[in-house]
Design brief:
- With about 260 residues, the chain is of the alpha+beta class.
- The protein has one domain (about 5-260): Alpha-Beta Complex (Fumarylacetoacetate hydrolase, domain 2).
- About 25% of the residues lie in helices and about 30% in strands.
- It has 7 helices and 13 strands.
- The protein has helices spanning about 5-20, 35-50, 65-70, 120-125, 150-155, 175-180, 205-220, and strands at about 60, 80, 85-90, 95, 105-110, 130-135, 165, 170, 185-190, 190-200, 230-240, 245-250, 255-260.
- The strands form 2 sheets. Strands 1, 2, 3, 5, 6, 7, 8 and 11 form an 8-stranded mixed sheet that branches.
- α1 (about 5-20) packs across α2.
Length: about 260
């Protein structure tokens, strides 16, 4: 892989974002050949869209089930990054035609209160964060991409990071790691129930997803620090549609809501 390939893919993704025109992925499928290629493009695109010194406000973890990893020929999750202007407070509004073709995903998220270290076990990680209900709205700048992209293009497109809807943070003082593996989430659209999902579908426990990210970032010299959010992976995925969305979480985690017009 040449530097020219990284530059071409990153330039194309930036232009697609600015023009709001999705790309055919086939011309790019052989241009990135290893993990470092994909994450290099991701970093270049993030800086081009957000500025050199724009701190990452949130990370997302994707491919947090064996089925989703197999779909992209990979054996681990993939992370993406979101800036502050990609965060939506619960109850806010999103305009559907300003997106490409987004999904809505129900997720357990965390907000960091103290720098997270790769040596932290799950109990220590839990003590350093608040937990919150979230919707992630992944979207791609590639057309017809679902389970068709290479893992490198998936990384390059910021793991489909688009918007993150954050509910109210809840203290973890009265929670233990096993509680996070047993959260149920009931999704509603315009008052109609769309079914229940479980947090255990995310690597067995969303804390495992958080720990994976802490260790992955450490390998590239980064840390999760106070104020940053992490959304840990989907427990349920549906197509985003206009209307009123709500998910109610067990274990005292409250709910998250979104209006789409």
């Amino acid at each position: 892989m040449s530097k020219n390939n990284v530059d071409e893919v990153s330039d194309s993704l930036v232009l697609a974002n600015e023009d709001r025109r999705s790309l055919n992925w086939e011309p790019f499928k052989e241009m990135l050949t290893k993990e470092s290629d994909g994450y290099s493009v991701q970093e270049l695109v993030y800086k081009a869209l957000n500025g050199e010194n724009n701190k990452v406000a949130a990370y997302k973890v994707s491919l947090t089930s064996e089925k989703s990893q197999k779909g992209y020929g990979y054996d681990q999750p993939i992370f993406g990054k979101l800036s502050a202007n990609q965060l939506v407070v619960s109850g806010g509004t999103v305009v559907l035609n300003e997106q490409f073709k987004p999904f809505l995903e129900v997720e357990v998220a965390f907000q960091v209160n103290e720098t997270l270290l790769p040596s932290d076990d799950l109990t220590t990680l839990l003590a350093k964060v608040d937990v919150l209900p979230a919707f992630e709205l992944p979207d791609s700048r590639f057309k017809d991409w679902f389970r068709k992209l290479s893992k490198e293009l998936f990384m390059a497109d910021d793991a489909m990071a688009n918007l993150l809807v954050v509910g109210k943070s809840v203290s973890t003082a009265n929670l233990n790691p096993l509680d996070l593996a047993d959260v149920t989430m009931d999704l509603e659209h315009d008052g109609s129930e769309l079914g229940q999902s479980k947090s255990s579908s995310v690597l067995g426990n969303p804390l495992n997803s958080l720990k994976w990210l802490v260790e992955k970032l450490d390998h590239i010299g980064n840390r999760l620090t106070k104020g940053q959010f992490v959304t840990t992976g989907t427990s349920k995925t549906v197509d985003l549609a206009k209307g009123s969305w709500r998910a109610n979480f067990s274990k005292g985690l409250g709910s998250v809501a979104l209006n789409v017009k």
